[in-house]
Amino acid sequence: MMIGRERVGTLLRAMVTDGSAAPDAPAAAAAALRDAGDESPWFVRFVAGGAAWVASLFFAGFLELLDIVSFMEHGIITGIVLAAAAIGLRRLWPLHEQTTFRIVGGVRVANKPRVWTDFGVQLALALSLLARFYFAFGVSEWSDEPRTAALALAGMELVFLAFYVDTTQRFLSTALFGAWLGFAAYDAAEADVVPRATRDVLTLAFVATAGMFWTRHADLLRSRWASWVTPVGYGLVVAASGLLLDGMLFAPFRNVPALGWPLTLGVLLLLAGLAWHLLRELDIDPTSPGALVVWALLIVLAAIGWREAGVPAALALLALAFRARERWLLVLGVLFTLAFGAHFYYDLDITLLVKSGVLLGSGIALLAARWALDRWTADPEPGTPA
Fold first, then answer.
1. Contact 137, 76 (CB under 8 A)
2. What's the CA gap between 316 and 324, in Å, rounded?
3. Where are the domains of the chain?
C-alpha cells in the first residue's frame, strides 16, 4: 500500500503518541523525504556540472587572451585569487540551498535547488584546479628549483584541505600533498640537499600515518572531525601507495634509487604491529598457536620479498579494509596487491620453471596456514574443553 507524503507526518505523530516511535521521528522522516524527493535526475545534474566546467574553461581562455601566465608574478597572484574564489564559492554556495519551504505532513521542510548547488560545487572544483595550474606556473617561473614549486604547491594543498569544505577536495588535497612532498624530496636528494634516504623515510611515514588513521577510523568517525575522516583516509592511502608505486617503477632509472630492504623492513614492522593490534582486538593471544601461524607467514614474507615494500603494504591495506568494512578501500587493496605482486613476480631473477614452483609452493603454504588458523582459532564446540 502506498502512503502519500501528506499522511506521513500524521502517521508518525500518532506513533509518537502511543509510544511506538521516537519523539524525533517526524523530523527525521521529513529530512529523508526531502533528500529523496528533491534529488534531481542524473542527466540534469550532469548538465549542471558540465556547464560549470565549460564556464571555467571559457574563463581560462579569457585569462589566456590577457596573456597573464607570461608573467610569473601574475601567475602566482592569479593562482591565489582563484584559490580564494574557489574556497569562498564552495563555503558560501550551500547558503542558497534552503531558500523555500513546504509542508510535509505538518512538518516544515526546506526545498533545496540541487541543480544550482551542483553547478556551484563543480565550478568551485574547476576553479581550484585552475588555481593550482596558475600557481604552479608562477612559482616555477619565479624559482629554477622544482622542489621549491613542489613545496609551494604542497602548502596550497594544506590551505585547500583546511578551508575548502568538500569531500572530493579533501581527498584530492591529501593525495596531492603526498605527491608534491615526494617530488620535492626526490629533487632535493638528487641535488644532495638532503640525505638520499629522505624519500624512503617520507614514504614510510605516509604508510604509517595511513595505517594508524584507518586503525582508529571508527573512533575518528565519532569525533568532531567526522566529515574529514574518510576522504583524508583515502587520500593518505593513495598518497602512500603512489609513493611506493613510484619507487617501484621509476626509482631504478633515477640517480636516487629506492633503498629497498630498509623500507621493506620498516613496512614489515608496521604490518607486524597491525597484526598484533588485530589479534588483541579479536581476543586472540599473540603467543597462541594460531597467532604463531601469522608470525610465521610474516617471517616467510620478509624472507621472500625483502626487496618489495609494496607487497606487505598492500596486505596491510587489505586487512584494514576488512576491519573497517570499506568496500572501496578493499578495491584499492586488491588492485595494489595485484600490482605489487605482479611486479615482484616478474622481477624475480629466476627461470619460469622455478617461478611456477614458487607459485605452487606459495599456494600450498597458504592453504596449510588457512587450515591451521581454522583449527587453532575456531571457537570450541559446546561441551568441548577449550
1. no
2. 12
3. 38-142
Cβ proximity of 168 and 174 under 8 Å: no
Whole-angstrom distance, CA of residue 9 vs CA of residue 30: 8
User: Could you write out the DSSP letters of every residue in 231-276?
Assistant: HHHHHHHHHHHHHHHHHHHTGGGSSS----HHHHHHHHHHHHHHHH
Distance of CA 244 to the CA centre of its chain: 15
pLDDT at 27: 65
Q: Which residues contact 151 (CB under 8 A, 6 or more apart)?
A: 180, 181, 184
Residues 6+ apart with CB under 8 A from 22: 16, 28
Supply 128's cell numbers.
Answer: 581550484
Say what percent of the chain tops pLDDT 70.
73
Residue with the larger pLDDT of the pair 372 and 180: 180
Q: Give residue 325's region: left, alpha or beta (phi > 0; psi -120 to 50).
A: left
Tens digits of per-residue pLDDT, 134-159? 888 888 877 778 888 899 999 999 99
Report how far residue 378's alpha carbon sits from residue 208's, in angstroms, rounded to the nearest whole number: 31
DSSP letters, 329-346, are: HHHHHHHHHHHHHHHHHH
How many H helices and E strands in the chain?
15, 2
Question: What secondary structure letter does DSSP report for 101?
Answer: E
Max mean pLDDT range (17-31, 45-59, 279-293): 279-293
pTM: 0.74
Q: What is the mean pLDDT of residues 319-339?
A: 89
